[in-house]
Specification:
The complex is a heterotrimer of chains A (about 550), B (about 120) and C (about 180). By secondary structure, chain A is α/β, with parallel strands linked by helices. Chain A is about 55% helix and about 15% strand. Chain A folds into 4 domains: about 1-135; about 145-295, Heat Shock Protein 90; about 310-400 and about 540-559, Rossmann fold; about 400-540, Rossmann fold (3-Layer(aba) Sandwich), CATH 3.40.50. In chain A, strand 6 and strand 7 form a beta hairpin. Chain B is an alpha/beta fold and about 120 residues long. In chain B, helix 1 (about 10-25) links the parallel strand 1 and strand 2. Chain C contains 6 helices and 4 strands; from the N terminus they run H-H-H-H-H-E-E-H-E-E. In chain C, helix 1 (about 5-15) packs across helix 2, helix 1 packs across helix 4 and helix 5 (about 90-110) packs across helix 6. Classes of the chains: A alpha/beta (about 550), B alpha/beta (about 120), C alpha+beta (about 180). At the A-C interface, helix 1 of A face helix 2 of C.
């Protein structure tokens, strides 16, 4: 009896313990629910805040752009406003000088000279300050043009000779015979030389000022070297570092004794750097100074931020969610002179493709988070992007490129005849009417429609119902291109492509893959699975991908 | 000693240049806009025209084009005076038909040299 | 005190003694909870003292001895129920020094109101661990059992000295562990 009592009691305790546990569980669940609600609200509030901030930032940016534009406009109009009255001062004093010479009034002459001199000095100051403002506002532009270096030097000499003579100095020009032509901003180079020469003239008395120029040939582009040598007072080691800084002449006493703005050399250095070169100085106190300007003979625009190469080869957009892959491909192609832009996933890839219109896109098909196939479809469906060749890539070790290399071109079903014509024109090696297209599709209606479209465009057509037949036909004769449906029985598209790429004589035949416009999830999964399978079976190197991309790039005629 | 038509809308600039040219012995006619320039060129047949490019009513480029398109004035040499030494301005002047150009502020000796060269009879110099 | 201590205690009594004995002490003790414990609940720690006391009377074994024994039992159970806490722990010193700063921190995340004893460790001398136990509840003996269980679990040979810091109430103690099998 007592045993049954015991068990009854125990059962009762267990039951009540269970109920207590359930109550606790319910309580905890409720807490979680309430916490979730609070989190959601917080999230919404945060999103709203972010949206507001973004709007504010956009407005601030627009404001900044407006302000910058206003500043430039101000600079431009100020420059005109400031120079006009000054020109009057200088001009009239020159007129009066001429008149006093005629009338023979030497006493007045020296006063007029002072007015003129002050006017010219002020003009120099204003010009320098406005130049520097413009440079610092990022609004100084380069205007490159072709010109003969020797001619420019002759002009400079003619202009600066009187100034040099003033201090009893002698001007020597040593111009090499083979200076040739230069494509750069002549005005700025002249301004630089004037600046250096007038400095030399200022700080030298009864000495010699030499303007030298020679051409330095180089494999990556010739350069021109200009030297201004003077036998003047020179500079000490302490004075040299501050030389090219704005508003610091070697020291303030020289400023007062020799005049000048202290801006000339700063502007000279800016100009040299903007033109792709540099200015440097050597000097010894009491012996003189040597200023050297080296500039590329052919001015090249600086590259866009972030990309190493000059990008003459074309623009490549890499869409891949794996950072290592992106970096690898970028390094490969940037080193070959392509400009490269990376996109982390499908959405960014599509956005960048629309914005930049690259020449080639590499697309990782097997991206775990983003369906690479849908990205591909989006690219091919967009009338503005469908013409960009897409090379499918996925890096799963070194054995993967079979499919990627096999299908650089896609068309979606139902096939638009115009699209098809474009693709074939781009891809097929023989001219229309001379070549044969092999159509591979298990659906008889599709084959018929494609046949009629192609025949109308002047192609000859042979047909195959699946991958195996396709290979048989290839054995009988080489087509100009293959139109291949991926989803076929017996031997599916992937295996066919792999087989085609496996044979040396067939490898170069362009394969245009025809995919359904809207892949069902089933088909998508099937494709992804098969893509992986093929990649593992394939035996191609990364270098082949690179060759393929280069081939495509070369084929594209620049617009 | 030549008859020079000076087209310049800025009073001070016009005055300065006119006086300095007169002192050198030239006869100076003045116009303050492009239309007046065309009229004076047709009626007075100057030996040379100095044309400031930024003018009211009709700008210097258009005025030059019309001068060069009119048989009566086609052969009058035109020197364009521009405020900038930009490539674009230079090319634009030459395209409009100018025979030479100079920059403002004017350096009188340089300008006189250009005038002298254009006034030489054809075949000389 | 968390319910898990009670449920484990009762299971230990059922295993080591008998279900009847468990039933008897539950009936004998005056328990506000009625002896109804769920592992996720919270109960008055005096009930544990009451249960241990009843068990001591019924078995004739000293309360402190029972608690020590329970402590050792609990350590083994912890290892089975919460294996994650034992990852990458290679020695008893390792484990004991993690109780305060890791295990109890995790417990508080789930049960913010839990009142946990403090286990402050001093490992400045190699081969020696000085551990100071402080609690608002008098379960120093339980702590001792846990410590012994821990050392035994890692198969170490160590001397364990215990010094009462609480004038007999059992709310504070210092343990000094000295490894015999580790060179100094």
């Amino acid at each position: 009896m007592s045993e049954i009592e015991q068990l009854k009691r125990r059962l009762e305790r267990e039951r009540r313990a269970r109920k207590a546990a359930e109550a606790i569980a319910e309580e905890k669940t409720r807490e979680i629910y309430e916490t979730n609600i609070r989190l959601q609200q917080l999230n919404s509030r945060l999103e709203e805040l972010v949206r507001q901030r973004t709007v504010e930032l956009a407005a601030a940016r627009d404001e900044a752009v407006r302000a910058s534009q206003a500043k430039s406009d101000f600079l431009a109009s100020m420059s005109h406003e400031l120079r006009t009255p000054l020109n009057a001062i200088i001009g009239y004093s020159e007129i009066l000088l001429e008149e006093t010479d005629e009338l023979g009034q030497p006493a007045i002459r020296s006063d007029l000279e002072k007015i003129r001199g002050a006017g010219k000095h002020l003009l120099g100051l204003i010009n320098d300050v406005l130049d520097l403002s413009k440079i610092e506002a990022g609004r100084m532009e380069i205007f490159p043009e072709m010109f003969a270096v020797a001619d420019m030097l002759a002009e400079v000499r003619a202009t600066i000779e009187p100034l040099v003579a003033k201090n009893g100095n002698r001007l020597v020009v040593e111009a090499a015979a083979d200076l040739g032509e230069m494509c750069s901003d002549q005005t700025k180079i002249r301004q630089n030389l004037f600046n250096l020469l007038s400095n030399a003239a200022k700080f030298t008395h009864s000495g010699t000022i030499t303007l030298g120029a020679r051409r330095l040939p180089a494999a990556d582009g010739d350069r021109l070297e200009f030297k201004v040598v003077d036998t003047g007072i020179g500079m000490s080691d302490e004075q040299l570092p501050k030389l090219f800084q704005a508003f610091s002449q070697a020291d303030t006493s020289t400023n007062r004794r020799y005049g000048g703005t202290g801006l000339g050399l700063a502007i000279t250095r800016h100009f040299c750097r903007m033109l792709g070169g540099e200015v440097s100085v050597e000097s010894r106190p009491g012996e003189g100074s040597v200023f050297t300007i080296v500039l590329p003979a052919h001015y090249r625009e600086p590259e866009a931020a972030g990309h190493a190469a000059t990008g003459r080869q074309g623009l490549l957009l890499i869409i891949d969610d794996d950072r290592n892959t992106r970096e690898l491909l970028e390094a490969e192609f940037a080193g070959r002179g392509y400009r490269v832009v990376q996109a982390m996933g499908g959405a960014e890839g599509l956005r960048l493709a629309r914005q930049l219109r690259p020449d080639v896109i590499t697309l990782d098909i097997v991206m775990p988070d983003v369906d690479g196939w849908s990205v591909l479809r989006s690219l091919k469906d967009d009338p503005e992007l469908c013409g960009i060749p897409v090379v499918l890539v996925t890096i799963l070790g070194d054995r993967e490129m079979a499919y990627a290399l096999g299908a650089a071109e896609f068309v979606t079903k139902p096939v638009d005849p115009e699209r098809l014509a474009d693709v074939l024109a781009r891809v097929a090696s023989s001219a229309r009417g001379e070549g044969e297209i092999l159509v591979v599709d298990d659906d008889v209606v599709t084959r018929e429609v494609l046949r009629r479209t192609l025949v109308r465009q002047g192609w000859r057509v042979t047909e195959a119902t699946d991958g195996r037949e396709c290979l048989e036909r290839l054995g009988q004769g080489r087509p100009a291109a293959i139109l291949l449906d991926l989803m076929m029985p017996r031997m599916d598209g992937f295996e066919a492509i792999e087989a085609i790429r496996g044979q040396a004589e067939w490898r170069a035949i362009p394969v245009v893959v025809v995919t359904a416009k809207d892949l069902t999830r089933e088909e998508s999964e099937w494709l992804t699975r098969h893509a992986e399978a093929v990649f593992q079976k394939g035996a191609y190197e990364r270098s082949e991908l690179i060759d393929e991309v280069e081939r495509i790039m070369v084929r594209r005629v620049p617009v | 000693m030549a008859k020079i038509l000076l087209v310049e809308d800025n009073e001070l600039n016009r005055d300065m240049l006119s006086r300095r040219l007169s002192r050198r012995g030239h006869q100076v006619l003045e116009a303050i806009d492009g239309e007046a320039a065309l009229a004076l060129a047709a009626s007075e047949r100057p030996d040379l025209i100095l044309m400031d490019m930024s003018l009211p009513v009709l700008d210097g480029w258009e005025a030059t084009r019309r001068l060069k398109a009119t048989p009566a004035t086609r052969l009058i040499p035109v020197i364009a005076l521009t405020a900038h030494a930009m490539v674009a301005d230079r090319e634009r002047s030459l395209e409009a038909g100018c025979d030479d150009f100079d920059t403002k502020p004017v350096e009188i000796e340089r300008l006189l040299g250009k005038i002298a060269r254009l006034l030489l009879p054809p075949g000389a110099g | 005190m968390k319910g898990i201590v009670f449920t484990e205690f009762l299971e230990m009594v059922e295993d080591k003694f008998s279900p009847e004995l468990a039933d008897q002490i539950l009936e004998a003790a005056e328990l506000r909870s009625g002896g109804v414990y769920t592992a996720v609940g919270t109960y008055d720690h005096h009930e544990m003292i009451e249960l241990v006391s009843c068990l001591s009377k019924k078995t004739g074994i000293d309360s402190a001895e029972l608690l020590r024994s329970f402590g050792t039992y609990m350590f083994k159970r912890f290892h089975i129920l919460f294996p994650d806490y034992f990852n990458e722990i290679e020695s008893s010193f390792d484990f004991l020094s993690k109780i305060e700063n890791y295990i109890h921190v995790e417990v508080r995340k789930l049960y913010p109101e839990a009142e946990l004893p403090s286990f402050v460790c001093d490992t400045s001398q190699p081969g020696r661990l000085r551990l100071t136990y402080r609690s608002t509840r008098p379960f120093a003996a339980l702590a001792e059992g846990l410590i012994r269980g821990c050392v035994a679990h890692y198969g170490e040979a160590a001397d364990i000295e215990m010094e009462d810091l609480s004038d007999g109430s059992g709310t504070a103690a210092r343990f000094l562990l000295t490894r015999r099998d580790v060179p100094r």
